[in-house]
Amino acid sequence: MLHYLKIWRACIRYSVTRQMMFRGDLLIWSLVELLWMAVNVMIVAVIYQHTSTVAGWNEYEMLLLVSTSMLIQRLLMAFFWGSLYDMSRNIRTGAFDFVLAQPGNPLFMCSTRKLESDGFLNSFVALGIVIYSLHRLHLHPSLGQIGLYAALILGGLAIHYSVLVIVMSLPFWLTSAQGVEGCYFTMTDISRLPREAFRNTAQMLATWALPIVIISNAPARAFLHGFQPQWTIGLFAFAAVWFMVAVIVFNRGLRRYASASS
Questions:
Q1: What is the 8-class DSSP label of residue 49?
Q2: CB atoms within 10 A of CB 103
Q3: Helix, strand and coil in the chain, % to nearest 5
Q4: Using CA atoms, how far apart are residues 219 and 64, in angstroms rounded to an integer?
């Protein structure tokens, strides 16, 4: 593990050095992401100008939920999105040979090649909105709640990562996964909704079958309602299951990879 952490640290250092050479590009993409986050916050503000609750959630509870979802997405974009997107492209072109030639686990090596600094910087903005929401809700979480929230954020990040690995592994079988990538972003949009907004079968599917809702709802509820065994155990169980599925899919696809030589 220490060896892999050293490799990841070296990749992060290289990524930051490279991005500092193109500061204008980093600034533009940071502003684009910041604008996208501002639009999401403004949507919440506009909706609550016309109603006091949505599915039983007041304005700042909803803002906490949305900012939690944005925090998980920014962390995903910062640490994994760029690397896994390149993996999908490299599988199609045969450049994936370079990853296989490296002395390390292929999934780790192709997942940690890049750090997207714009996503990393904007994760602090999302965290700031979380803190602002807690302030407006007059909540003062204990260290235990903060630790639980952080653990659930990591669990949600693991689910997002696992789904992304599965999607980006499809080029092992398909010519392109671009259409499926769009479905992935639709899933991330749905994760900003409260569980109570779904009804009957849709609620069951979105919460337990494909755990879209639990990713952001579970951490937000940790601050609003404290420790809830059903949500906490459910999220960690799904994170473990989806990660195992992602590893299996990736390894099965790896056996099909024919390399650039063929």
A1: T
A2: 7
A3: 80, 0, 20
A4: 10
Residue 112 has pLDDT above 80, yes or no: yes
How much of the chain exceeds pLDDT 90, in percent? 32
Q: Output the six-digit token pair for 129.
A: 């909105």
Q: In whole angstroms, what is the distance from residue 164 CA to residue 246 CA? A: 8
Q: Is the pLDDT of residue 163 over 70?
A: yes
Other residues' Cβ atoms within 10 Å of the Cβ of residue 179: 9
Q: Retrieve residue 212's tokens.
A: 């879209």
**Two tokens, residue 40:** 């999401």
State the pLDDT at residue 109.
87
Q: Are 154 and 145 in contact (CB under 8 A)?
A: no
* CA distance linking residue 213 with residue 117, whole number of Å: 27
If you average pLDDT over every residue of the chain, what do you get? Answer: 85
